[in-house]
TrEMBL record:
Pfam families: Aminotran_1_2. Belongs to the class-II pyridoxal-phosphate-dependent aminotransferase family. MalY/PatB cystathionine beta-lyase subfamily. This is cysteine-S-conjugate beta-lyase. It comes from the Bacteria. It comes from Sporanaerobacter acetigenes DSM 13106. GO terms for molecular function: cysteine-S-conjugate beta-lyase activity; pyridoxal phosphate binding.
């Protein structure tokens, strides 16, 4: 290993949401924070050096993203995911959640229906509801410790109940691939079938692929838009180096829209909001991470997979009351805590005040998941061990 992912870096006092918000969120600050989805690893040195060089220039006036920025995104998507894209398809958003919200606002109207698949990262629900659209929840199915899409149910859900006719108020499908919090990296078959339903019914797919670089062995990320020309023409794909390279605070994402009309509508929204400029450091970081960060990423993937294997074994051997759903992607692990006999606020209280570990409560991802929590393993092994030890001891005291 050339990179030291074991290094423990103190993030307290940096206005880190994950570390410095513990007191507000959990009521105490002696928490091992394993909640907010960013990592405790330092970004690749090449990225830091490039930003340092720019920082030392001293003038941070208005800038634009040059041709090399777009070319780097084209190359990254090709080499990591085998998808050929044109540089002109690439546009910008400060973040993926803002991109989801802009898509909802641009391509649907109040009262239109937008499909999501719960359990799901909570902003998928709020960008629909807070914008006055109607959420259609095509709930995922959990079977044998594995989540699946329920596409038969989806066919029913997009129809008007009495007539069986397609409900033309269903305008958009918000896909999370890989999926947060279940860790699924959707298969080609699932994506093709979902894509067929959307193409047949003129439903625009907005695919959040922010976690697409964190994939475990035996799995492969498939951008849904890469599966056919038809799918490319009805998909907005959102990617960012933010989760992968510890860059989430730099607010820079690439939005890939092959269809010219859809792209120009999206760009129109960006321009209306006057947020298309981005920021100097985010642009530099994206470009350098995608151009020079592959070796670092390969090592990160090995490290995260070791973390994951460590966690799986730990729960199996020492905390069998909690069952992790093994993720295929993402550094987020969805834990089934039903064996503890606690739900909702009681479960939250258990993790915060008994284990002193900061987790995300499952009921925020789905009303059915009150006995689940989400645990972030994007941290040095020593932090992971400390978190697991605290959970084990608290479970033993129950
Ligand atoms: C699936 C998913 N989408 C989007 C985001 C946030 O993206 P951004 O910070 O770019 O808005 C997260 C962060 O946890 C996420 O897990």
């Amino acid at each position: 290993m050339n990179y030291d992912f074991d290094e423990v870096i103190d993030r307290r006092g940096t206005n880190s949401s994950k570390w410095d918000d513990c007191k507000d969120v959990f009521g105490r600050d002696d928490i091992v924070p394993m909640w907010v989805a960013d990592t405790d690893f330092k970004a690749p040195i090449e990225v830091i050096e490039a930003m340092r060089k720019r920082l030392e220039h001293g003038i941070y006036g208005y800038t634009y993203r040059g041709q090399s920025y777009n070319e780097t995104v084209v190359d990254w998507v090709k080499k990591r995911h085998g998808w050929d894209i044109d540089s002109e398809w690439i546009t910008f958003s400060p973040g993926i959640v803002p991109a989801l919200s802009m898509c909802v606002n641009t391509f649907t109207r109040p009262g239109d229906k937008v499909v999501i698949q719960s359990p799901i990262y909570p902003p998928f629900q709020s960008v629909v509801e807070a914008n006055g659209r109607i959420k259609v929840d095509n709930e995922l199915i959990l079977k044998d410790n594995h989540y699946h899409m329920d596409l038969d149910k989806l066919r029913e859900q997009i129809c008007i109940q009495d007539s069986g006719e397609f409900d033309n108020r269903v305008k958009m499908f918000l896909l999370c691939n890989p999926h947060n919090p279940t860790g699924r990296s959707w298969s080609k078959e699932e994506l093709l079938e979902l894509g067929r339903i959307c193409v047949e019914n003129n439903i625009l797919i907005v695919s959040d692929e922010i976690h697409s670089d964190i994939i475990y062995s035996g799995h492969k990320h498939i951008p849904i838009a890469s599966l056919s020309e038809e799918l490319a023409q009805c998909t907005v794909t959102c990617i960012s180096p933010s989760k992968t390279f510890s860059l989430a605070g730099l607010s820079t994402s690439a939005i890939i829209i092959p269809n010219k009309r859809i792209r120009s509508m999206f760009n129109n929204t960006l321009e209306t909001l006057h947020i298309d400029g981005g920021n100097i450091f985010g642009s530099i970081a994206l470009e350098v991470a995608y151009r020079n960060g592959e070796e670092w990423l390969e090592e990160l993937l090995v490290y995260l997979e070791d973390n994951l294997n460590f966690l799986m074994k730990y729960f199996e051997e020492k905390i069998p009351q909690i069952v992790p759903i093994r993720p295929e992607a993402t550094y987020l692990v969805w834990l089934d805590c039903s064996g503890l006999g606690l739900e909702g606020e009681q479960l939250m209280d258990f993790f915060a005040n008994e284990a002193k570990v900061g987790v995300n409560l499952g009921s925020n991802f789905s009303r059915r998941c009150g006995s689940f929590v989400r645990l972030n393993i994007g941290c040095p092994r020593s932090t992971l061990k400390e978190g697991l030890k605290r959970i084990e001891e608290a479970v033993n005291r129950l």
